[in-house]
Amino acid sequence: MVSVPAQPLLALHGVCKRFGVVQVLTDIELEVRAGEVVALLGDNGAGKSTLVKVISGVAPADTGVIEWEGRPVQIRRPHDARGLGIATVYQDLALCGNLDVVGNLFLGREIRKWGFLDEVEMERCTRDLLKRLATGLVDLRCPVVSLSSGQRQMVAIARSLLGDPRLLLLDEPTASLGIQQTAEVLELVDHLRDRGMGVLLISHNMADVKALADRAAVLRLGRNNGFFNVNTASQEEIISSITGATENVPHRVAHREVDW
């Protein structure tokens, strides 16, 4: 098990976001450390996807403080998030089905040599990356549309790792996957945590959360409604916080119980 640092990689304090007259997020607190998986939970409309967009720079926060490794930062656009080392994989994956695996990984960031696409180098980089991630993908030149849902999810995650990010945001990565494909994706996320990456995981699947996450942060109606150590909290406690049966659950745990 990776020793989790005391200082958060990412910390949010009092973050608020409004769209017109609708207050979507109010006074959000959140911490993610390197080498841990934090599950972001909540019912539909709780504000989970909006919070991911705030962190990724797609929908900047209106007020509040965002800290990266203990220092305040401004994330006003996706470029700012990528510059810090934050990568995001959205639920729709945003892959081009007619392109192969290599083409999808390097779409928009192609490697060129003497003014021409360096297909050999891009394929080598793709093969090395997928090998490190132990994805099992062999044919890198097959169209992505011919891959299974689980394999496409792995391609999307691999693409997000090209710039060696330190924090990965995953929006419902197993929502449309079968049992075997879900297991493969969870194994990949577990591998990333073992490499010291911080992961913020949005999921409705409590089985996935209990199997993978270290901590859980619950949102309800755009506000914090509980923080849990997944290893010690019961599933009933977490679900009660999600549904609102338990309101304003105190901050139970700040991190995994490890020796610093």
Strands side by side in the biggest sheet: 6-9-10-3-11-12
Level-2 CATH architecture of the largest domain: 3-Layer(aba) Sandwich
Order of helices and strands: EEEHEEHEHEEHHEHEHEEH
Structural class assignment:
alpha/beta
Q: How many separate structural domains?
A: 2
Q: Mean of residue pLDDT?
A: 89
**What ranges have pLDDT less than 50 throughout 5 or more consecutive residues?**
249-260
Tell me the fraction of residues in β-strands, as a range: 25-35%
CATH class of the largest domain: Alpha Beta
Net shape:
globular
Instruction: From the 3D structure, determine the CATH topology of the largest domain.
Output: Rossmann fold
Largest sheet composition = 6 strands, mixed
Q: Distance between termini?
A: 12 Å
CATH superfamily of the largest domain: P-loop containing nucleotide triphosphate hydrolases
How helix-rich are the residues, as a percent range? Answer: 25-40%
Number of strands: 12
Integer-rounded radius of gyration: 19 Å
Count of DSSP helices? 8
